[in-house]
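Customer ticket, subject: "Can you confirm the structure for MFS transporter?"

Message body: Hello, I'm evaluating your service for our small team and ran a test protein. I'd like someone to confirm that this is what the system normally returns, since I don't have a reference to compare against.
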Amino acid sequence: MPRLYQTFGVLSAAAAAFALMQSLVTPVLPTIQHDLHTDTGTVTWVLTAWLLAASVATPLMGRIADMIGKDRALLVALGAIALGCLLAAIAPSIGVLIVARVLQGLGGAIFPVSFGIIRDEFPPHRVTSAVGVMAAVIASGSGLGIVLAGPIVGALNWRWLFWIPMIVVTLVGIVAKFVVPASPVAAPARSTGWPRCCCPAGWSRCCCR
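Agent reply: Thanks for trying us out. I re-ran your input and got the following:
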């Protein structure tokens, strides 16, 4: 049982970190716009790029997790977030920042992978409650980002909105490497399925196989 709690703690921290990335930059878009000398239309891509990348990565990486193992997919997602945060923290221009946000969005795989690990590792009678708590963590993380952005930027600057998550996600990834158990089942790759996975109509099929 303690191992389950450790696994759930790591998954919750990973999901909360990704959820924070959705809303953390929203209140400081005007500051980023001024600092990187861009316009309003361009700076909104800091949000749009993240949303688009997350929308694509969530179903596709969920399917890939079934093939390479959910524990490995979780580490890949955390690595993408950490790399994206590092690139965003040092971004010299709005274009680099947008690319960094795309990398962060690839971490959307954390959600389906975390739910999959819960389904695999938890006793059946605990799965529903664990999924409910995880959903609450994700919702709380999204709201908390807006609250934390102001104090962080006020005390430091907007780049620390990426430095801090990078440090946290890196630590979570290290712990996950040793705590999250290997997936008991990994589905073999089938090349015939990939064309369907590359179009929106096939995403649900890819995730539900």
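A couple of notes from the result: The chain has one domain: 2-180+188-208. Residues 2-180+188-208 form a domain with the Growth Hormone; Chain: A; fold (CATH 1.20.1250.20). Feel free to reply with more questions.
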